[in-house]
Amino acid sequence: MLEEKKIIVSDEFFDIFKNLNVISQLDKMKNLSTKELYLLLVAALDKHDDSDNTVIFNISEFKKEVMDIYHIQDDKISDIPDILKLIEETGDKYIETDNIINSNGDKLPNPLSKDEVRDSRINNIFE
User: Fold this and answer.
1) Which residues pair with 100 in a beta bridge?
2) Is 1 within the bounds of a domain?
3) Which of 13, 55, 112, 118 ranks highest by number of CB atoms within 10 Å?
4) Model pTM?
């Protein structure tokens, strides 16, 4: 049996992913490395509701990067070093997001439900 390749990401990555459907993450996303940004966008497209207005807002500024991702998903070869590295690291033909972990070994959480988003937004108002 092949060992799953783990992709270790920053705590900032986890925080952004968790709050992608809650509140603007644009400033935080701009601070990620290019490699983590691509990985975040792939995870967002795979796991978040792409009709959610907050998710759309958060990824819309990265149209070029999203198009780079769709390019490889259409079985086209990429010449972007960060995308090639992510494909190699996940051991797949595409960028796999199921094996993303943080420095503690925690797997990427599921996106927040509508109720959790509401609670989180309320908490943000009173912080």
Assistant:
1) 7
2) no
3) 13
4) 0.86
